[in-house]
Amino acid sequence: MKTHLLQYLVCPTRGTKFELEISERDGDEILEGSLVSPFGERYPVRDGIPRFVSSEKYTDTFGFQWNRHARIYCDGKDKHRIYSSSDQLERRLDLSLEKVRDKTVLDIGCGTGANGAVMAEWGAREVFCVDLSSAVEAAYANTRHLNNVHVIQADLFKLPFRHESFDILYSMGVLHHTPDTAKAFLSLVPFVKESGIISIWVYADCPDLRQRLSDRVRAVTTRINPRLLYALCWLAVPAYYVYKIPFLGKAIFHFLPPISTEPYWEVTVQVVQT
Fold first, then answer.
1. Is residue 107 within 8 Å of 170, Cβ to Cβ?
2. Into how many domains does the chain fold?
3. Which residue from 66, 74, 157, 249 has the highest number of Cβ atoms inside 10 Å of its Cβ?
4. Residue 47's closest CA among 35, 67, 31?
5. Mean pLDDT for the chain overall
6. Which residues pair with 168 in a beta bridge?
7. What is the pLDDT of residues 92-112, one digit of tens each?
8. Does residue 36 sit in the same domain as residue 109?
9. Order of strands, edge to edge, in the sheet holding 192-201?
10. 88 and 181 co-located in one domain
């Protein structure tokens, strides 16, 4: 946690400012400590990350996969994808360098922090990456070197920020995984400035054969142990090469639940598990 993050955080239940108690630091980075409200609420800073939740709730599978593939969009791997992280932000969220430069940005459901890193690259003034899951560990490791990127573990229904704090709020592929997608969206709106941008991308709702199959499969996979599910997802890697067979591959896939057609194996495994 960078020391200047303190000025942006408030108690998620009372909206009051925090005092910061520091147990361990590394220069400007607070590694261990506590955020303490005037009314005695305490939230730990652990391993460099402010923690406003005590469990991952329904997101443990996501935490597992993002930490397992923490560098999936780093180290030049983006070039193997159909669309890079920056391409996805432009294509799905209509965000760009021109819109982001010098703005305060909130990333809801940050995963590995790859999108937050793009925001920093595009010149955002401050980027706040929030995730409910343990994916914050990967996000922090990937963005700690960026002075204007902050990683916070928090519930999007109880965010530790003041209303109207952000010029841009975005979320990619997250809200439909919450218990109530509409409620999740409405809970985020107050945090955007009146003249700001809120940009949300969720899975398309197309009740065709493939989606009905997908929904039936997800009814089972969402209850499977994350490690077992992860092992099963590897079946999608050879399936990609079946898909690439002219005519036959696409015909077969038409009658199967959606399987990633990404050419890079690591992205295929991660997308299928999601």
1. yes
2. 3
3. 66
4. 31
5. 89
6. 105, 197
7. 999 999 999 999 999 999 999
8. no
9. 149-153, 126-131, 104-108, 166-172, 192-201
10. yes
**Whether 150 and 185 share a structural domain:** yes
Across-strand partners of 152?
130
Neighbouring-strand partners of residue 108: 130
Distances (CA, A) of 100 to 1, 106, 201: 23, 11, 17
Note whether 192 and 56 are same-domain residues.
yes
Give 186-243 pLDDT, tens digit per residue.
Answer: 999 999 999 999 999 998 777 666 667 767 777 777 777 777 877 777 777 787 778 7
- Number of helices (H), then strands (E), belonging to the chain: the values are 11, 9
Domain shared by 60 and 142, yes or no: yes
Outline where the chain has alpha helix (H): 60-68, 85-93, 97-100, 114-121, 136-143, 181-188, 209-221, 226-233, 236-243, 248-253, 265-273
Helix (H, G, I), strand (E, B) or coil at 40: coil
On the 0-12 / 13-18 / 19+ scale of CB atoms within 10 A, 216 is: exposed
Q: For residue 165, what are the domain limits?
A: 52-201
Residues 70 and 185 in one domain: yes
| 132 secondary structure, DSSP code | S
Q: Which SS3 state, helix, strand or coil, does residue 204 take?
A: coil
Domain boundary at 160, 175, 201, which?
201
